[in-house]
Amino acid sequence: MVAFKLEQYLASILDAVDVDSNEVQLKVGNSSFDIFTAYLENRNAGIHRYQTTNTTILYEITGKTKIRNNGRELKLGPGNIMILRRKCEYDVQTQLKGNVLLKLEFNSNLNFKTFLINAGVLDPSERNVINNVHDTLKTRQLLYIKSSPISKPAQLLKEIIDEYLNQNMFTQSMIIAQLSILFITTIRNRDLIVIPDTIQEFEPTTLEQYIDDNYAKVTLAQAAQYFGFNTNYFSSLVKQKTGKSFVEHVDERRMQEARNLLARPDISIKEIIAHVGYSGKSFFYKKFNEYYHETPVQMRTELFRQANINLK
Description:
This protein is an alpha+beta fold. It has helices spanning 3-16, 112-117, 124-140, 152-165, 171-188, 204-214, 220-227, 231-242, 246-262, 269-276, 281-292, 296-306, and strands at residues 23-25, 36-41, 48-51, 56-62, 65-69, 72-76, 81-84, 89-92, 100-106, 142-145, 192-194. The model has no long low-confidence stretch (mean pLDDT 88).
């Protein structure tokens, strides 16, 4: 089955579904096959909630899908692949017409780590890499593969599902070989991405440290990405955890730094404005007055008086 025909075939299955189930099981061509079960995500309304029973692969064939896991919103686009560990809880947002999300749920008798180790003749360093990948997946719940529709991992997955659907001899052997190449190629090319820490690991002190290191240039979107959250969710989380908005935290840190710099006679107010991350004098003065209820010039005069600094 040629790649584009496979996509059309899978889309036609979803178009024909008239049951209100979250997923549609794909019938395997070879009845003796027992590596995984393949499903398509149904396009019925509502959020689909899951807990994996074993290692699971999500593969976005066409369209875009939003996945939520532990408060994080993750996006899958065409060709994107995600590996989820056993007992990983996740939600799939409503699927739109044109979306084709494939799921391969490995059977309980298949151990992911053992499968990788048995994939070929490995030297000690290669075994160590496999162990590290497995431990990372176990700790972080899921891993993301950098891939596009024309990348090797995506093409291999299409070949794998093509084998799964057809009644060919040696299907199991072919799929084992293809999966081995997929995982080993991904690991060797360093295409596995670790999803950032979960919501439980977010603490106000961590945010303070991050802003301390980045206050001059940081944006809400950059901070959300750093902590592994959707921008809107991260904004709400910061407000909920600290009682202040992200912007208020950044402005507060900038104002503290501005005050420290105003006490130094060797740096001009113009240089201070640029150093703390504001783009214009009027906006800086406005923020400064809102925070300290006086102008930078007034504060500098008082700081110099207290330090017995006379520039005249």
